[in-house]
Amino acid sequence: MIHEVDEGLRGLLAGSGLEASGVEIVFDAPTREWAARRNAPTVCVFLYDIREDASRRGSGAGEVYDAEGYVVARRTPPRWFELTYLVTAWASRPQDEHRLLSQVLATLVAVDALPERLLTGSLAELGLTVALDTAGSGPDGPAASDVWSALGGELKASLGLRVRAPLAGVSRAAAPPVTEGLVVRATDHRQDGDPVPGRRLRYDGVEDPGPDGFAGPRERRPAPARRRRGDRQP
To answer: Which residues form the Pvc16 N-terminal domain (predicted)?
Structure first.
């Protein structure tokens, strides 16, 4: 799921014209060594925090059907996670970095979720909204200054981007539909040692063909009358 969110963000930013103008979009950690190797304008989208949204955790299991309408699997509900990114712009001059960062900000705040056309893999299969929260203040997670300190770099202008995405549940294959009744035998073997031919129990909706071994429909018997207290058994 995480790599599918990455690809969706790459497609969203690339569609704003960044790649067409020669700007690279990467997902590397912006360490001091990494920054020293940059020789082209770059927008870095660094994932640094992953947390589950426990308030949206579901229970039970849903059914997965095939083209004929049969249940082929059962899937647990998806679990939601918040992915927090540090978005930075890298260029030779601060003015150029601010221009790139402004273009990125305008692109991200223009949408509240990743467009459906940019969803791939399990995100496209689930068909659920992948929400975006740009430059918002989150209640949890490390501060930007703490991230820069851990990376060993100097603090610079950055955007915080939080993505709420579903992780597909676990699927378990279901048993195939029952098409034949159970075989019932009165004894294990005949006296000559051959197995006794069985008769299959009849299911509702299956006509009794007679000699093929299916039992005919049972007659519905009326419920016995209730005896009153004091009545004697004949």
So the answer is: 4-179
